[in-house]
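Entry type: protein chain
Record version: 2
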Amino acid sequence: MPDFFIYSKDGDSMAPLGQRLLREGHAVRMFTFNKESKLVGDGLVPKAPTGIPRKGELVIFDTTGFGREADRLRRGGWKVISGGVFADRLEYDRGFGIQVMRDAGIPVPETHEFKTANEARTFLKQQPRASAWYLKPSGDEECAATYGARDVEDMLRELDFRSAKREMPPAFLLQKKMDSSAELSFEGWFDGRRWVLPWNSTIEDKKLLAGDLGPNTGCMANLVWAYEDPMPRLATLTLTRLIPILREVQYTGPIDINGIFDAEGVYHALEFTPRPGYLALQALVALTKGDLGAQLWEFANGSLDRFAVATDMFSLAVGVSIPPYPNAEFASVARGTPLDPKLLYDPLRVMLTDVMLIDGKPFITGSDASVAAFVDTGKGLNELRSMVLDNISRYAIRNAQYRNDPVERAEQEFDFLEAKGYEIPRFEEGPPERPAEYPGAEPMPLDTAVSASKDGTRIGGVSPNVTHVGMDTTSTIEAAR
């Protein structure tokens, strides 16, 4: 049975995966790079003291930015999923990513790259005053750093504002806004030689507040589904065109391409995500049956033909947080906030994120103040939304923040895409579904879970009454306070 080493930047996106692998019986260790996030997952996932895996461990990177480490491990003989210098450049060097799309024949909106604000100002003053643009910084920037202007004057003000605060990135794109009828991402998993089925797509809500108001957090809700068709139209138009370059760099892992459709139904790519996507991964995991760890091992070794992902239902993940999320800079003020212990009882549908256990009870660690991804699976969108939102309401989460209108635009987008000849998910309505990791698996009933927690039954891969091995309980409690 394979062992796993998770190399994470903040831990919150990978802790749920680690718990899933633990429940399957795999040995798991997680290393968290950011010092502000060292407590994330304590008591839930065993920790590694350094970023050096043991021989034989399958290494999974959850973010870009550690490409040299990932490539060094590959050269050293480790099997590695995600990561690599190529992946770093594909996501962080936006100009490079756009050029890769163009070279592959993938349409992109009108896009220009700049090094200075003055260059961008000169360009904008030559454009129609009513034209609208996005400013997209290169580098490892927060999602909120992307700015969508109403018109040229608005973008000029934004450039002046960033220049005055000395917050201009060293390189950035100006990308012209398009009138879009639909937006979705398309993802595949590449094993170094070929794409491993099934493909999947995501419709995402990126804004913090209902109605798409507030700051861009990157993700507040994700609707995910997998394709039964081995070669859907979007595959031929996008990711399959990358096979030569992916083979050349020997990339292994997921790659997502996000884009929008114009009124004629032409897909225009916006950006790559060569790593597991936040919330999208949690939603995809909920659709995956059987031993996910064994499947990941076969994938990394090039011997997996298809993941056991359900293609006859949706998965919806909604992120729940508390203030001051999404302001990670101030998230430490939430450290030690107690959470409802019942959040531990249903790990199939409640995937804890910025959380640690102290004496078996959950607390916020203060890395970003996210609480959990609430996930459910089902065939009907309205029923699925109700299932997720009803599940969130069962727990006492002080000052909970979440979208109560997750991906409401999905039905309208599906109608448009179907009219333009794209494969869209239409599932025959049936009784409510629940995530199932293996045959017969389903979330533990709440009354049973309460009794189980009292007698020390293992929940989420660890005993809720046992503090994480090696943790100084006293110092952790003080740190939480």
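Comment: The chain has 14 helices and 18 strands.
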